[in-house]
Amino acid sequence: MRASILALIPALLSAAPPPNLQIVKAVISQMEDGAPDPPGFEHVPGETLYFTCRVAGYSKTTEDKIHIAYSVQAFDPKGVALTDLYKNDLSDEVSPQDKEWMPKIQTEVGIPPLVGSGAYKITVKVDDLIAKTQTSIDIPFKVRGHDVESSDTLVVRNFRFFRNEEDTKAMENAVYKPGDGVWARFDITGFKHGEKNKINVSYVTSVIGAKVLWTQPEPAVEQAESFYPRLYIPANFGITLQSNFKPGEYWIGVQVKDAVGGQTYESKFAFKVE
Hints:
It is a single chain. By secondary structure, the chain is mainly beta. The protein has 2 domains: about 15-145, Immunoglobulin-like (Sandwich), CATH 2.60.40; about 155-274, Immunoglobulin-like, CATH 2.60.40.3880. Helix content is about 5%, strand content about 50%. It is built from 1 helix and 17 strands. The strands form 4 sheets. Strands 10, 12, 13, 14, 16 and 17 form a 6-stranded mixed β-sheet that branches. Strands 2-8-7-4-5 form a 5-stranded mixed β-sheet, with no helix packed on it. A 3-stranded antiparallel β-sheet has the order 1-3-6, with no helix packed on it. Strand 7 and strand 8 (about 135-145) form a beta hairpin. The radius of gyration is 29 Å and the shape is elongated.
């Protein structure tokens, strides 16, 4: 009877479940090997995140070897990937003295320059190629971006007048004097994307009174391809009024063309000269 029980021990050991594969100690920081972001921290468009985590509960072969594969990818609040999928694998030999050692995943995640505010996430997936097990985790992070209301069709949003080119606060009342510079910023959205998220958007601005007083000599053109689809295009306008400019009500006219989507848009925005 004792011999029969001893004979079962190897079989029971081989049938033991694999360790509980886990992704632990995830850290997002502003610099390589830097301190973790404090609670509630908000990143900004165009920033690079430095991400690390560890893998626990991996399996080993009888020769104390490990082999894991992993991927890392960031997503916006709507689940659209910010960057291409980062994939890699790690194989190593872990001695009994290193039983507390955990493989480290380390990479950089770039936030595209024109994104909105919201709750983003980094998704990490790990495969233990020895135990044939998988696990994944979502690590959230926040972004404080420039928010532009979406549109199904081509449109200009957030048109603002400024006193000068460097101003960050828009004028409450767009009132200028002869000889002043007239500055404006606006966002173009609702354009269509082609293959590889290609866009081809152009715009022309004009100064309009009783008639068109001035028109931009050449269209401003934005042509680009990108992994992450552009949500909007920031645009601007600036002109200096002549010292003898007649007081009255005027408009900045904006004509936009979306060559990929075959769309056009036209509008005008009022200002006064006193």
